[in-house]
């Protein structure tokens, strides 16, 4: 039955008053000849009589009108578009489609008949391409043959042109291949081409470790960008120390910029593991030199770079030994531990016979043996490497609240304004000194179990753990001042359990040794140290009798302390830090109450000046500079320990409260450290919690 006829040929039983011509027309439309199946003339479709015809309610008639329309697989029936005469007329734009995606274009008259529908078959494209693929596989209507190394693939030019810019240019220009029935392709693997032709018809392709090296260059040549990008993403997820150098070289050869940049970053971030692979040993000299000269190598110790160079040279000693001297120039020997230099590096035969190596070792030993002169030996080899992607975190260590002394530690992420726990110290410490040097965080001295401490420990973010220092200080100290200068950690003053101290010691992590230096001019308990213009400044404190406003400066080149202009207020247990070339003294205790006032020393004026006060009175807190801001952390307000934190913005001369610590901490130690992988630590901590 003609589907259009089934929608429009019946008349209403109530139309008996119609003219005979109308009855004749209705009769002729209701009984079409099975053999002829005539179409409805356009003039009849537009006839008012036909437009006003109602749908019969007879079940038999309605049943007969449910012949399927040719809908390419969708179960769309004729009566899906008919309305019950007893129901409300369909409003403009409405249609009953039983879930099919149809849009209407108004109704004609008041009886609900539709002017038109917009039918969408969402499966049409996939069905067409499925048919085309079937035709290709059966050699139907194929108009091109692609030949690679004697093997052939049949295809349709239009499909290839729609998928590949390479074929589109070939078949739509005046290239000689345009009218050739067979196209011979060179420098292409047949299996890779077959996969890409299959992709052109199906939109699907399986990328694997076995085929990606052939697939990516073929997709690049044929300019099939989606597959090329998918191959690059696949290789990105395969990056590993054992293959990253090869992937980097592969990406460079095929101009995959993002893949090259990411793999290069992976090499630098995982250098210690990469340097132990065979791929590293096979690198040419130029690439080895470029790699070890990078200031962004993510290493635990400079000795790892030295070992990598020696291993590379020995892999092909005959041809590479002459390159050793130039490679050694990029190794930062002064930053290698003294014991390693003496016991291993100096005894390496390649170093003993290399003039450049001898000179570099002499420079390194001078750096180790003359700590006071380190400022005079500054060059690239005395600077710690700085991995890319470093992020500054603020660490709060130890301290106490009520009668508890903490070993719990937490760090603050300024970007997310959140605090998170990390590995606890192996010893509980209150009133300790906390600082950073290189990639490590140090907690030294302090108070625990009713005694002052001489021990220290350091935190390594790579392994998220604390380790004790190899040697204790010469003096037990709590309430000490601490700062880092020229690769050395200085501790000054404090309290030994009997008296306030003026003595000063420094720790060299390159030798694991403590040494005494010139004592301060006065005793300082709860004083602070900070660094400005290559000198140490000791600020405030308590000498056992009086609260101090004094400040003195230590120049390591002269090895002596010199009194400087005093603060305007006496401050013990204050927070002191350097920001934008000025020294800030924040809060503290003047002997009668905790303070929220702040003052700063301007070396250009050689004088102190007041700045905006904090929101909260604080003493026994700590102040840290990070990314151009000051952070006042924890402490005591005179009645209770604090977990609150506020940040000073120099441009607005204002303090802003930020997210509080998880624990209340008075006598807390704090420091800022740039870490390349704290995100990994966060993930590990979250995994442990879950």
UniProtKB/TrEMBL annotation:
GO biological process, any: protein ubiquitination
An annotated Gene Ontology molecular function: actin binding
Keyword Ligase recorded: no
Region of interest called Disordered, as start-end residue ranges on this chain: 1-89
Role summary: Probable substrate-specific adapter of an E3 ubiquitin-protein ligase complex which mediates the ubiquitination and subsequent proteasomal degradation of target proteins. May have a role in synapse differentiation and growth.
Pfam families xref list: BACK, BTB, Kelch_1, Kelch_KLHDC2_KLHL20_DRC7
Entry keyword annotation includes Repeat: yes
Keywords: Actin-binding, Kelch repeat, Repeat, Ubl conjugation pathway
InterPro entries xrefs: BACK, BTB-kelch_protein, BTB/POZ_dom, Gal_Oxase/kelch_b-propeller, Kelch-typ_b-propeller, Kelch_1, SKP1/BTB/POZ_sf
Chain ranges of the BTB domain: 142-209
Protein name: Kelch-like protein diablo
Coiled coil (residue ranges): none
Pathway given in the UniProt record: Protein modification; protein ubiquitination
Record's compositionally biased regions (Low complexity): 1-50
Family annotation (SUPFAM superfamilies): Galactose oxidase, central domain, POZ domain
């Amino acid at each position: 039955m003609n589907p259009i006829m089934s929608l429009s040929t019946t008349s209403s039983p109530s139309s008996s008053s119609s003219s005979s011509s109308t009855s004749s027309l209705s009769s002729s439309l209701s009984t079409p000849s099975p053999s002829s199946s005539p179409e409805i003339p356009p003039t009849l479709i537009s006839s008012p009589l036909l437009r006003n015809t109602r749908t019969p309610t007879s079940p038999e008639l309605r049943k007969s009108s449910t012949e399927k329309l040719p809908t390419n697989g969708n179960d769309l029936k004729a009566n899906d578009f008919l309305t019950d005469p007893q129901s409300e007329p369909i409003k403009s734009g409405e249609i009953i489609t039983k879930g099919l995606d149809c849009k209407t274009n108004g109704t004609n008259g008041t009886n609900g008949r539709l002017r038109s529908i917009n039918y969408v078959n969402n499966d049409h494209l996939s069905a067409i391409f499925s048919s085309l693929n079937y035709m290709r596989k059966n050699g139907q209507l194929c108009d091109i043959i692609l030949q690679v190394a004697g093997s052939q693939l049949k295809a349709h030019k239009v499909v290839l042109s729609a998928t590949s810019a390479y074929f589109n240019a070939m078949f739509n220009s005046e290239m000689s291949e345009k009218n050739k029935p067979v196209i011979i392709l060179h420098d292409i693997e047949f299996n890779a081409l077959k996969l890409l032709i299959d992709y052109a018809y199906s939109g699907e392709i399986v990328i694997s470790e076995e085929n990606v090296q052939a697939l990516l260059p073929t997709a690049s040549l044929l300019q099939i960008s989606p597959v090329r990008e998918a191959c690059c993403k696949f290789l990105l997820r395969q990056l590993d120390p054992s293959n990253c150098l090869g992937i980097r070289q592969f990406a460079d050869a095929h101009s995959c910029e993002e893949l090259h940049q990411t793999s290069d970053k992976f090499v630098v971030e995982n250098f210690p593991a990469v340097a132990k692979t065979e791929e590293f040993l096979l690198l040419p000299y130029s690439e080895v030199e470029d790699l070890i000269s990078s200031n962004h190598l993510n290493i635990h110790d400079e000795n790892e770079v030295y070992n990598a160079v020696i291993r590379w040279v020995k892999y092909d000693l005959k041809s590479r030994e002459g390159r050793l001297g130039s490679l050694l120039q990029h190794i930062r020997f002064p930053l290698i531990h003294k014991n390693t230099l003496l016991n291993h590096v100096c005894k390496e035969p390649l170093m003993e016979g290399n003039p450049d190596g001898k000179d570099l070792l002499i420079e390194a030993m001078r750096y180790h043996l003359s700590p006071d002169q380190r400022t005079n030996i500054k060059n690239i080899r005395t600077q710690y490497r700085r991995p890319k992607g470093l992020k500054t975190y603020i660490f709060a260590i130890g301290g106490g609240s009520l009668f508890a002394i903490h070993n719990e530690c937490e760090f603050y992420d300024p970007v997310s304004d959140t605090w998170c726990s990390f590995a606890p110290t192996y010893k509980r410490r209150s009133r300790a000194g906390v600082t950073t040097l290189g990639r490590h965080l140090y907690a030294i001295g302090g108070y625990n179990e009713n005694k002052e401490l001489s021990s220290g420990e350091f935190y390594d973010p790579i392994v998220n753990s604390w380790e004790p220092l190899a040697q204790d200080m010469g003096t037990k100290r709590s309430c000490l001042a601490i700062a880092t200068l020229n690769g050395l950690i200085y501790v000054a003053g404090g309290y030994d359990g009997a008296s306030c101290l003026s003595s000063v010691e420094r720790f060299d992590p390159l030798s694991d040794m403590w040494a005494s230096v010139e004592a301060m001019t006065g005793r300082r308990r709860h004083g602070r140290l900070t660094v400005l213009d290559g000198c140490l400044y000791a600020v405030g404190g308590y000498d056992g009798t009086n609260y101090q406003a004094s400040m003195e400066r230590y120049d390591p080149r002269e090895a002596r302390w010199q009194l400087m202009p005093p603060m305007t207020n006496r401050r013990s247990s204050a927070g002191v830090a350097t920001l934008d070339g000025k020294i800030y003294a924040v809060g503290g205790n003047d002997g009668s109450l905790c303070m929220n006032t702040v003052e700063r020393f301007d070396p250009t004026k050689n004088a102190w000046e007041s700045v905006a006060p904090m929101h909260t009175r604080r003493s026994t807190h700590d102040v840290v500079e990070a990314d151009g801001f000051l952070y006042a952390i924890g402490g005591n307000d005179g009645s209770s320990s604090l977990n609150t934190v506020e940040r000073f913005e120099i441009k607005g001369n204002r303090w802003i409260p930020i997210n509080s610590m998880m624990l209340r901490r008075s006598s807390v130690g704090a420091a800022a450290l740039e870490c390349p992988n704290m995100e990994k630590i966060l993930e590990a901590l979250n995994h442990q919690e879950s």
